Amino acid sequence: MPPKVRELVKTLEKAGFRDRGGKGRHRNFVQPNVSKPVPISGKLLDDAKKYQIRAVEKSVQEAEK
After folding, report:
1. Contact, 61 vs 20, CB < 8 A?
2. Which of 5, 40, 48, 64 would suit a FRET pair with 25, their CA atoms being 20 to 30 Å apart?
3. Is residue 65 pLDDT above 90, yes or no?
């Protein structure tokens, strides 16, 4: 079962990302050590999509370098 969107948001916030906002249900998370913002869309209780999970994992790894 895929994680929920809220779990991805918590993971990003733990890694030092902050939400710079977005339109509608879109959120853009930024962190000084990461080159691109991480867009997350959907309600917090929605299941996360595979591409969202990959984007979060990749960005968290880049932030740790």
Report:
1. no
2. 64
3. no
Cβ atoms 50, 40 nearer than 8 A: no
Task: State how far the Cα of 48 lies from the Cα of 32, in Å rounded to an integer.
Answer: 24
Contact (CB, 8 A) for 15 and 64: yes
At 10-53, the pLDDT tens digits run: 999 999 999 999 999 999 999 999 999 999 999 999 999 999 99
Q: Are 18 and 29 in contact (CB under 8 A)?
A: yes
Closest Cα partner for 42 from 55, 52, 54, 33? 52
**Residue 61: what residue type?**
Q
Q: Kindly state the DSSP code that residue 54 receives in the 8-state scheme.
A: H
C-alpha angle 55/2/45, rounded to 5°? 90
